[in-house]
Amino acid sequence: MGEVFAGRYELVDPIGRGGVGAVWRAWDLRRRRYVAAKVLQQGDAHSLLRFVREQALRIDHPHVLAPASWAADDEKVLFTMDLVRGGSLAHLVGDYGPLPPRYVCVLLDQLLAGLTAVHAEGVVHRDIKPANVLLEATGTGRPHVRLSDFGIAMRKGEPRLTDTNYVVGTPGYFAPEQLAGAEPDFPADLYAVGLVALFLLTGRKPDSQALVERFLEYGVPAAPQGVPEPLWQVIATLLNPNPEARFRTPTGARKALAAAMELLPEPDIDEEPIEVFDQLGPLPEGFGPDGPVRLTAPDDSAGEFTGADGLSAPVAWAGVRGTPPYSPTVPLAGTTRRYTSVPVADRPAAARKVPAPRAKVVVPVLVVAVLCFAVGIWALAVA
Amino acid sequence: MDTSSPQDAAVRAREQQRGWYGEPLGDLFRRLIGDLGLNQARLASVLGLSAPMLSQLMSGQRAKIGNPAVVQRLQLLRELSAQVADGAVTAVEAAARMEEIREAAGATLLGSATQSTGGRAVPSPRRVVREIQSLLRSLSSADELLSAAGALADSHPQLAEFLRVYGAGRTDDAVAHFEAHQD
């Protein structure tokens, strides 16, 4: 069984690494569903935590994957997000190479729609790149993009707290003005979308620096091989080294993209269909579709642990338990023993029927436990 | 309606693969895994494919490798596996070479995020060794390094060995030395 973080999230298996910290598949004991959980050291977590606090509840968009909630213990912070199973655009191009232009248009349109929602909140993403654009596992159906990783996102005009904010990000997907140290602004995200578009169409990481040089020397370069002319008109406008000359908004880019798509040739019938696979492996042993499989009998401590949700705040729970994280199946010396001395008869029923027993249930149990403990100590003292 | 069974489709895909790649990819990948001491996940990572895609290609659910960069890496791996099989390349050298292949032809464009198997971009031992070698040789000639090694041989045998191996020895020996002294 996995480690339980802050009494609520049971870590299942590692599913990747973000810019900072590991990403885990985790079981949310309270909401009873699997989530993606990014575990960060408190220090690294600072900017993401700020982001969660300020934005998460407001950026609710089908093409944005923003952190949904967080929990903290002494050293670490954990952020949760929906579990997105289809890998990233980097995986997709790894598997298929250059993607068909019409397919790319669908991906870009969704990415720009998500970006519209982000910009509408005054947030500059600052790290748009193939690995941060995730996909739902839609198989051969229509793809579904989720813009993720707001680790270095910033509200426009917000002061940058440290110098490290200057250097974070992904070299190669930076806009030229970003490299030059300009204040974070929306057009930089649009430039990055342009580079992502080139990556999807050519199957290779675009050479941003060479592009900028060609732009500055000769104006708009000719369409690279594999990029249809109408689509290149749109992408070149995203990639203009002068931020003023790009589209003003992601919506503007979407309109131009829709018009360009009309001019694209019909897809080749022989094209092998693109399938967005489920990139997450099967659940490890001990976990089922409905969460951890507790093989042990009714007086297993799991009952109490779900019961802990009744106390609602992880902090409150941490207060009761002492120091999380801990493993729910390894009985903690002391506490669990006290629990097991409680009459077994009514507890399992309560734990099964009511996934989250309220304080009404937990408090008497605790009281009985404390009584038993007192009796134990008294017995020892007498002996 | 397509009435052919999935088995027929897989047989057809394997025939196509034989035409394109010389043999069915299931056979080819299994041989690479055996010769190079890999597992499926590691092979997928070196080739730059996702694990589900590798498995579809192996089973014939999918016939063609769509990404030309992957085809290139596959070719490089086949050459490497042949060299390992006839003893021209040691296992240690093969491991370093696979790192290079993984990074070649644009694997780095995948970035490190969401790749649990990829991990950080740790330079291969061979690259580190080459750096050390070039640094030493920029300071003095191989002969000078050897005579320095001779002077140190009695008082500091390990330092002497270091100078001899990296300053004047074969790269393969230096890589072996480096790996023996890691962590």
Structure description:
The complex is a heterodimer of chains A (383) and B (183). By secondary structure, chain A is an alpha+beta fold. Chain A is built from 14 helices and twelve strands. Chain A has a six-stranded antiparallel β-sheet with strand order 1-2-3-4-6-5, with helices on one face. Chain B has 183 residues and is mainly α. Chain B has two domains: 6-108, no CATH class; 125-180, no CATH class. Chain B is 68% helix and 0% strand. Chain B is built from ten helices and no strands. Classes of the chains: A alpha+beta (383), B mainly alpha (183). At the A-B interface, strand 2 and helix 2 of A face helix 4 and helix 5 of B. Chain B: Keywords: DNA-binding. Chain B: It comes from Streptantibioticus rubrisoli. Chain B: This is DNA-binding protein.
Please outline what is shown here.
The complex is a heterodimer of chains A (383) and B (183). With 383 residues, chain A is an alpha+beta fold.
Please name the defining characteristics of this protein.
heterodimer, A: 383 residues, alpha+beta, Phosphorylase Kinase, domain 1, Transferase(Phosphotransferase), domain 1, 3 domains, 6-stranded antiparallel β-sheet, two-stranded antiparallel ribbon, 40% helix, 13% strand, B: 183 residues, mainly alpha, 2 domains, 10 helices, 68% helix, rod-shaped
Question: What topology emerges from the helices and strands here?
Answer:
The complex is a heterodimer of chains A (383) and B (183).
Chain A: E1 4-5, E2 9-17, E3 22-28, E4 33-41, H1 42-56, E5 69-72, E6 76-81, H2 89-96, H3 101-120, E7 123-124, E8 133-135, E9 145-147, E10 154-155, H4 164-167, H5 176-179, H6 186-202, H7 208-218, H8 229-238, H9 250-262, E11 287-288, E12 291-292, H10 302-307, H11 314-321, H12 335-340, H13 346-353, H14 359-382
Antiparallel strand pairs in A: 1-2, 2-3, 3-4, 4-6, 5-6, 7-10, 8-9, 11-12
Helix pairs in contact in A: 3-6, 3-9, 6-8, 8-9
Chain B: H1 6-21, H2 25-36, H3 40-47, H4 51-59, H5 68-85, H6 91-103, H7 125-139, H8 142-152, H9 157-168, H10 171-180
Helix pairs in contact in B: 2-5, 3-4, 5-6, 7-10, 8-9
